[in-house]
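Good morning N.,

You mentioned wanting to compare the apo and holo forms, so I went ahead and generated the holo version with zinc ion. This is what I fed in:
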Amino acid sequence: MLTVAPRVVEILVAFALAYVATLSLTLVIWTFRDIQTRTTDVFVQAVSTLFVAVFNLPGLILYLILRPHETLTEQYERSLEEETLLQDLKQDLLCPSCNQVIQPDFQMCPHCRMRLKRQCVECGRMLELDWSTCPFCTTPIGATVP
Ligand SMILES: [Zn+2]
Ligand SMILES: [Zn+2]
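and this is what came out, ligand included:
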């Protein structure tokens, strides 16, 4: 009995060590994968992974606080969204001749009197100058571009 007890303790300690080792390895692998989705900077990736490898769980908590809060995919999506928003704001709102702000249903630029659109003689909808037929009521307009 006296010789069995230290054996049991030894096995328990070995299990505990294996458990802690596996846990810290998992934390390091998780951190490495996570930082790769957040930055392309190899130095930051190495430092973050090393930090968690050395300090373990407290290191992971610090990493979670300090890591870039957006992943690269999120950053990319946000920049795309911003670009689309900007383009929507800019689109079709400037006169091609004088670059003053105009509205999409203007027939003529109020600033430089440039002809922008014309009205269908049949249905009265606004038509682009280079259209030969009204797409709304199918009336042929002919090439009366001024
Ligand atoms: Zn104009
Ligand atoms: Zn029409």
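The first helix runs from residue 4 to 38.

Happy to go through it together on a call whenever suits you.

Best,
F.
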